[in-house]
Design a protein that fits this description.
Strand content: under 5%
Largest sheet: none
Distance between the termini: 20 Å
Order of helices and strands: HHHH
Number of strands: 0
């Protein structure tokens, strides 16, 4: 599970950075993220902002009750 948590944190940080800097485009995203952020593989553009909802993350990683479980993690306050 800790690997999954790190993957989720990486995804959230990637989305935040991508949204914050308008000069970034799909080529600046790590290879594994375009499908995870947009739900579509091999997309030439990724619209901004990237949104990461609990439901979307649960579907991507096959998890349940992320909102409930996040309260147990130290990064939930940030």
């Amino acid at each position: 599970m800790s690997g999954t948590i790190l993957d989720i944190v990486e995804l959230l940080l990637t989305a935040e950075i991508y949204n914050r800097y308008p000069e970034l485009d799909v080529n600046d995203l790590p290879k594994k993220h375009p499908k995870k952020t947009t739900g579509v593989a091999q997309k030439k553009t990724v619209p901004k902002p990237i949104t990461a909802t609990f439901i979307r993350i649960e579907k991507l990683y096959g998890l349940k009750d992320i909102e409930k479980n996040r309260k147990e993690r130290p990064l939930h306050k940030y």
